[in-house]
């Protein structure tokens, strides 16, 4: 039996909350580097509210989830089981993964898609200690000219990921109630 | 589960399943008759969704996806802290609430009363319905008989 | 080429208004309720659930009402609704051996445990229109004979015990799902069975009939046909146990087919399998014949070029929502496409005429 903490902190109005969150996630991916506020989830630590919102919105029993490093704790496992029902798996089988940058690397472990189906790749939710519109220079689809985003260090695996386009993984960066996205199509530097 | 499709309601999967399969209106009627509804807070507001039904090739082989069915689930917490899960077939959120209340109350001192007033009638009615169909089916069972053949005389 | 054109909103509104009125029909005749459709048009409801791939009799009845009885339109409505539902998970595979049967017949064995139970069948009716149904009247209650509800064993298990029929292979690994991933060929049997279970009854009927007439003959006997109620059990992840969440009516057909044997297998019988939502007997029967025809490769048989053997042909064309979507879209405006065709034909004719004139002059 899961504890009470695991049972609270879900969306109060799932249809509306998940529609709003989906919109935010989609806009973030469409406009890489922009930072958006999301709300509605109160997950147990170390999962951030923004990462919790993404899991509630994007994950279900058909999307295997990998909890990386310090995110693989009983409180998070139980919360995911109750609210999303996503099976918890190793990195290699994951459709989604959440953790900090150190625990998620190396990225090559995750599904990278196939030439016929580039969409069969993992989406990573990277919990970052800071999220701001400064740091690395981003260009590419969805960005008018250029923009800046604080990327986790080291940045090389992200540069290598972008170089694999159309294969590779897509990433969300989350901190507190805020998120940004870094799809594989975005060029760094 | 025994051969008649019944599941013992002594255990939690049993009572949850009985409420899940019960006609929604009947479940709500029986729960309503328990008296004033206890105070509770939603942990998961009733949500309508689907469950994919699986079959097996040849009845016994590899699993395959047959099609889905609608279902509604929710979870609530009584003021005493007891958590109740409601899962019901179909799209009736009020029936889901009633099922979650039964699940919660069955874990409290009210269990005996809920069993007698809700679960036992539901179980009796489900069995009566199964019996009625089985009786009609049995009436259409073919009784073969061999006619006397001429050359045997 | 697709070009966006505006206009026609008023005409579309008026068309929808008239559609609603025509749906209602003569206002002096009482309106059908969804409950009436659910209870009295049960086989239409079952067909819509089977091809709509969603068990919910109320919604299927509503879809039939909304579609004015056009069952493919109703299937479309149900499928569209289904896409809005979050999926809670997948059931434990249903145990059709534990089915509480309304009907259970075998064409291969006369005497079998549990007996031949006809159920509410059309089979032995005379197919004469019953004018009594034009008058309202009470139906006498069905006859009953005391019996305890309980499961009856599968007939084919009798052959299985003797080793006379091919064993079904236990599958392993994730179960493929057509509703989540696009169809990839060659498809394994699980994917084929899913596609057939939601496929169009008329299409499967035609294909099954073609195998009987010699296009990929499989010599099928109906080992068993059963219809009844099964329990759907679901694992609840947060509770760590399964509950019997619901009951659905299924129809299951197992065929027993001749098989001469192959390099690796001794002569034995093989199986075709049909399992469908609802009382959809014709479809389950057709499905089992088509399933068997599609198994030529795994059973080491020859591909004789029959449509029912052709996996790509069958799986790509059995879904009536896909088919009707593509077919019916050609009646929507294609003004620009056609304009360019028209220009082309005119130019070709002009060129041909000019060529003829030149030749005549030379």
TrEMBL record, chain A:
Which one GO biological process term can you cite for this protein?
organic phosphonate metabolic process
Against SUPFAM superfamilies, the record matches this protein to: PhnH-like
Q: Which domain of life is it from?
A: Bacteria
Q: Does the UniProt entry include the keyword Iron?
A: no
> InterPro entries, per this entry?
PhnH-like_sp (IPR038058), Phosphonate_metab_PhnH (IPR008772)
Query: Per the database entry, which stretches of residues form a coiled coil?
Result: none
The molecular function terms in GO held by this entry are: lyase activity
What are the entry keywords?
Lyase
Q: What is this protein called?
A: Phosphonate C-P lyase system protein PhnH
Q: Specify the species.
A: Rubellimicrobium roseum
From TrEMBL, chain C:
* A Pfam cross-reference name: PhnI
Which UniProt keywords are listed?
Answer: Lyase
One GO MF term, please?
lyase activity
One BP annotation, GO: organic phosphonate metabolic process
User: What name appears for this protein in its UniProt entry?
Assistant: Carbon-phosphorus lyase complex subunit PhnI
Lineage, broadest ranks: Bacteria, Pseudomonadati, Pseudomonadota, Alphaproteobacteria, Rhodobacterales
């Amino acid at each position: 039996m899961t504890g009470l903490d695991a049972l609270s902190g879900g969306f109060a109005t799932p249809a509306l909350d998940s529609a709003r969150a989906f919109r935010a996630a989609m806009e973030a991916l469409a406009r890489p580097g922009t930072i958006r506020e999301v709300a509605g989830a109160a997950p147990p630590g170390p999962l951030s509210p923004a990462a919790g919102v993404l899991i509630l919105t994007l994950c279900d029993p058909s999307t295997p989830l990998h909890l990386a490093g310090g995110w693989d704790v009983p409180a998070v496992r139980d919360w995911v089981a109750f609210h999303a029902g996503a099976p918890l798996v190793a990195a290699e089988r994951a459709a989604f993964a959440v953790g900090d940058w150190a625990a998620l690397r190396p990225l090559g472990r995750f599904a990278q898609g196939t030439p016929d189906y580039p969409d069969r790749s993992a989406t990573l939710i990277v919990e970052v200690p800071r999220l701001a519109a400064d740091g690395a220079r981003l260009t590419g689809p969805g960005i008018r000219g250029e923009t800046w985003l604080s990327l986790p260090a080291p940045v090389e695996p992200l540069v290598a990921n972008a170089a694999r386009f159309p294969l590779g993984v897509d990433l969300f960066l989350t901190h507190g109630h805020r998120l940004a996205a870094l799809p594989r199509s975005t060029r760094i530097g | 589960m025994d051969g008649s499709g019944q599941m013992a309601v002594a255990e939690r999967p049993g009572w949850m399943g009985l409420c899940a399969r019960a006609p929604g209106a009947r479940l709500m009627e029986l729960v309503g008759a328990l008296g004033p509804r206890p105070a509770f807070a939603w942990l998961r507001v009733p949500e309508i969704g689907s469950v994919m039904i699986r079959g097996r090739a040849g009845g016994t082989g590899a699993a395959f996806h047959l099609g889905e069915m609608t279902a509604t689930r929710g979870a609530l917490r009584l003021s005493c802290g007891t958590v109740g899960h409601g899962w019901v077939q179909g799209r009736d959120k009020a029936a889901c609430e009633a099922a979650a209340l039964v699940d919660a109350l069955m874990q409290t001192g009210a269990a005996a009363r809920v069993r007698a007033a809700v679960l036992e009638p539901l179980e009796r009615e489900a069995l009566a319905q199964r019996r009625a169909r089985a009786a009609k089916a049995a009436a259409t069972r073919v009784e073969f008989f061999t006619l006397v053949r001429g050359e045997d005389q | 080429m697709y070009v966006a054109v505006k206009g026609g909103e008023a005409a579309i509104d008026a068309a929808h208004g008239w559609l609603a009125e025509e749906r209602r029909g003569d206002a002096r005749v009482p309106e059908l309720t969804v409950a009436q459709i659910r209870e009295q048009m049960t086989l239409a409801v079952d067909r819509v659930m089977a091809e709509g791939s969603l068990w919910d009799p109320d919604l299927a009845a509503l879809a039939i009402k909304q579609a004015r009885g056009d069952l493919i339109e109703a299937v479309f409505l149900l499928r569209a609704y289904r896409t809005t539902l979050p999926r809670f998970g997948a059931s434990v595979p249903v145990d059709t051996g534990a089915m509480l049967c309304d009907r259970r017949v075998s064409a291969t064995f006369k005497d079998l445990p549990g007996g031949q139970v006809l159920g509410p069948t059309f089979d032995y009716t005379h197919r004469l229109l019953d004018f009594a149904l034009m008058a309202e009247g009470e139906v006498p209650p069905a006859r009953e004979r005391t019996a305890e509800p309980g499961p009856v064993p599968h007939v084919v298990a009798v052959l299985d015990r003797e080793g006379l029929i091919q064993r079904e292979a236990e599958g392993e690994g994730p179960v493929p799902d057509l509703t989540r991933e696009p169809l990839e060929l060659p498809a394994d049997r699980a994917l084929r069975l899913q596609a057939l279970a939601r496929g169009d009854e008329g299409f499967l009927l035609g294909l099954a009939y073609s195998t009987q007439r010699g296009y990929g003959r499989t010599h099928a006997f109906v080992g068993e046909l059963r219809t009844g109620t099964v329990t759907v059990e679901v694992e609840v992840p947060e509770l760590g146990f399964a509950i019997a969440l619901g009951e659905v009516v299924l129809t299951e057909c197992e065929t027993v087919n001749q098989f001469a044997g192959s390099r690796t297998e001794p002569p034995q019988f093989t199986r075709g399998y049909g399992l469908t939502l609802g009382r959809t007997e014709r479809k389950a029967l057709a499905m089992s014949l088509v399933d068997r025809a599609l198994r030529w490769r795994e059973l080491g048989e020859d591909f004789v070029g029959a449509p029912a053997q052709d996996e790509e042909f069958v799986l790509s064309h059995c879904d009536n929502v896909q088919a009707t979507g593509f077919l019916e879209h050609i009646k929507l405006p294609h003004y620009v496409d056609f304009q360019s065709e028209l220009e082309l034909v005119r130019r070709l004719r002009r060129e041909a005429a000019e060529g003829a004139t030149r030749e005549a002059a030379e």
